[in-house]
Amino acid sequence: MSKIKYLLLALLSGGLFALSWPAIGGLVYAIFFAFVPLLWMERQISLRGKRTSLKVILYAYLTFLLFNLLTTWWIYYASDWGAVMAILCNAFFMTVVFWLFHLSKKHLGDKAGYASLIIYWLSFEYIHLNWELSWPWLNLGNVFANDVYMVQWYEYTGTLGGTLFVLAINLLVLQAVTNINVNRRKLLGAVTIIFLSLIAALTIGGANEENESTKRLKVVILQPNIDPYYDKFQGISESDQIDLMVRLAKSSINEETDVVLLPETAFPQPFWDHELEFMYGTEEFRKLIAEYKDLRVITGILCSKLYTEESELSSTARKLPDFGWYDDYNAAMHLDQSEEIQLHRKSKLVLGAEKLPFLNLIPWMKKLSVSLGGTQSMYGVQEYPSVFFNVDNEDGLAPIICYESVYGEYVNQYAQSGAAVYAIITNDGWWDNTPGYKQHLAYARLRAIEGRRSIIRSANTGISAIINSRGEVTAATEWWEESTLYAEVNMNTASTFYINHGDYIGRTAAFLAPLLLLYAFVRKTNLTAKRLGKHK
Description:
This protein is of the alpha/beta class. 46% of the residues lie in helices and 15% in strands. The protein folds into 2 domains: 2-207 and 503-535; 216-347 and 382-491, Carbon-nitrogen hydrolase (Nitrilase/N-carbamoyl-D-aminoacid amidohydrolase, 4-Layer Sandwich). Mean pLDDT is 90; it is low at 369-376.
């Protein structure tokens, strides 16, 4: 009977996580109870036996496997093996975190043990934002992406503050249901924290009302809706694609238009970055810029860099026989009245499809990448993001390419360099009409709050949108349609607390986690030594 009960509790937790997630269930308040069945199960197992780790691992893995499966199954449309690896591995990482909490609770007691869950989970999410196997899609703070009225305080904490919030409420609810003497007090505490957070969010959000006197940017956003599988890279010629986008731009721009935003890989054929001026797309949009003196164009491109000196080689450089060394980039390009072409090369690459983890340590990862739908080598990366300025070195725009928009602290760097508006370019058609592109759009809303920046978003296939500094979507296209959007968005160069300090919550937790593990290990060693001494 206990096995069935534990199984049901594990499944209940996994189901609650999924029900709370954007574009899946959307019942955001379920996240405040999602850990409770799993924690209850861990408590019961701990009370009933000595050899508890294996049981906790198995049931916890079932919970997190269900969570990952129900929320990110759509990766299958881009890569079947990529989906399998992402779901299995991410569930495993979450299980390891829960197992470390179980061990710490076992050796440090309940109070320190439950505190360790918060510290370990925050550490895990911080690491997941920064290491080679980075996949922070399911970081708990992302759960509020479609309920931004609840987390206007992210301008102070970022999404890791949301993770802390979720974990704290779950632990309060757990205490309420496991200790009848403090039932009402703990439940009241949980409700009070949620209520106060909502009051704070509404207050902070109200203080950030869009100011009509603020300098505004007039933008035209293109959504060409070119099928990424059958048309973009092989079915339709590049010149035909460019002509389509020029026609869309002409249909919406006027003398006052400041920016035309094109999607990721709008110019689909790779070109050497020292010859970008000679691309057909560059030539055609230069003609358009010549007609409108203040017009700027931002577009996604694929480009390659040729190295003339081996001393300049990057870690991702490849060699062409009898030619030389080069790097491929997924990039954004900026054109205006000046002769200069500004470039930003994508820094946060998609695991498997655009980059190979631990390539220098594990050479066979090249073969694995091909089976996952990726390339035989990595795209190159740019260490620090570029901001695109106009000819007067003003009106900075952040060219954020696709997956980069999931990383809050990384996006901060654009704001620190003078970006007044975030311009996201993406190609979300890889996942078909699934929750994937909806979640991607939703996560961008959190970046708007963290930096108090307006967002203009161009998706080749997906949803193009305008997002204000409170994270509200004020205009959007439909899925899978050829369309344009016109908008006037506020510009802002002020810094929020989060822009200045980044993921300080994660860094603090990452500092404390190994100390807590060491303390637990010492306690376990001392207790084992005492037992052996008594036995003798």
